[in-house]
Specification:
This protein is α/β, with parallel strands linked by helices and 371 residues long. It contains 15 helices and 13 strands. Helix 7 runs parallel beside helix 9 and helix 7 packs across helix 13.
């Protein structure tokens, strides 16, 4: 088949780009002709909370990527639709993760030739951080889509707030396979971490809804001093970092929390996960989680809060702990994991569960929807 992607890809960085590129490679592997139409401007700089939108890594040589779409330039919307039509794909695969993108993406999709089927992978139908115009932009985006893939039941349930007659399929987020599994000792040596510490990893872009403040408070309630716990925070702040730093100081945790507050490049992701004993996702609300799928790849147990689709991804007491979204429950889960020596048991569970999340299974769900 001939498949066009409309969405984030190199030179842009982050989970959306990594997902789209990985899925495109999976289609190419089975013999499909694939091209990605990505952004010239994804977010205007004044709307982007991080330091850079762009990757330092070289472009993936095996993928055809054309920069065409500006989220804020309507002329580019029509030009992008014209380019996709000239490519003559059987399917256009796009993403919906933020209502802000609704006008640009929705206009492109409306201008496509009628014989092209449009499938949308929905990350979030209702955003974690609400803004004026969200419902209007989402409502505009939905009608030209022929079918939707949701990666959690939480997102699928959100469709009840919007009108669509298009079919909706569920398929969980596939595994992000960033690099090789190595020993804790090797990874920690490269990150200059103590080989005997028990490390809890919080990974990824830091936004308020991800509950890092809960995790810091929960950590302060654990037996961190007597049992040698360290909390490793690896990710760039997309929110004001001052309250988090003040909380760490207030709780006198400066010697027990390791803060690598920067965007972690793809080449370094493995160092952090290979270093960890436990991956923590203390989210206040959520849909699905790319972090969980990285943890599966590196065979790391997890502690997640029971919000959104996290409990679907991490079966309780098999691949980790699913706890109530409360500080006390997070603290108890961390202590239980180390005191009851659950690591080996949960690693075995992770290895068993990770077989569910192959890219071939995701493509099969897409094929079912297409048919």
């Amino acid at each position: 088949m001939k498949i066009a992607f409309l969405g984030t890809a190199h030179p842009f960085r982050g989970g959306l780009a990594a997902f789209n590129e990985r899925l495109a490679k999976a289609y190419q592997k089975q013999g499909d002709d694939v091209k990605i139409f990505t952004f010239t401007t994804q977010y205007p700089n004044f709307l982007f909370p991080g330091k850079s939108q762009f990757s330092d890594s070289p472009a993936p040589e095996e993928l055809k990527i054309e920069r065409s779409l500006s989220s804020v330039n309507p002329i580019s919307w029509f030009k992008t639709a014209k380019k996709i039509n000239a490519y003559q794909p059987d399917i256009v695969i796009t993403r919906f993760w933020l209502p802000f993108m609704g006008p640009a993406l929705g206009t492109v999709l409306r201008r496509l030739n009628k014989n092209i089927k449009v499938i949308c992978i929905v990350d979030n139908l209702i955003p974690h951080e609400k803004r004026a115009g969200d419902k209007l932009f989402t409502t505009y985006f939905l009608p030209p889509v022929d079918g939707f893939i949701c990666m959690s039941d939480a997102v699928k349930n959100d469709f009840k707030y919007f009108k669509t007659n298009a079919p909706i399929e569920f398929s969980p987020h596939p595994i992000y396979d960033y690099g090789d599994l190595t020993s804790k000792e090797v990874a920690r040596e490269k990150l200059q971490l103590n080989s005997i510490d028990k490390i809890i990893l919080f990974f990824g872009i830091i936004r308020d809804y991800k509950g890092l403040d809960w995790l810091i408070e929960a950590f302060s309630q654990t037996r961190y001093k007597e049992n040698g716990y360290k909390l490793l925070i690896a990710g760039e702040f997309y929110t004001d970092d001052k309250p988090y730093r003040e909380l760490i100081s207030k709780l006198e945790l400066d010697d027990f929390i390791i803060l690598h507050d920067r965007f972690i490049s793809d080449s370094d992701v493995g160092l952090y996960f290979n270093s960890a004993n436990l991956v923590a996702q203390p989210y206040k609300h959520a849909t699905q989680s790319g972090v969980a799928q990285i943890a599966y790849h590196f065979e790391k147990p997890m502690i997640v809060t029971n919000v959104g689709g996290l409990g679907e991804i991490v079966p309780n007491n098999i691949a980790g702990y699913v706890v109530d979204p409360e500080i006390d429950a997070i603290a108890k889960g961390i202590d239980d994991f180390f005191v009851l020596e659950k690591e080996d048991q949960f690693i075995a569970g992770v290895r068993q569960e990770k077989t569910k999340y192959g890219w071939d299974k995701f493509i099969a769900a897409m094929a079912k929807l297409y048919q």
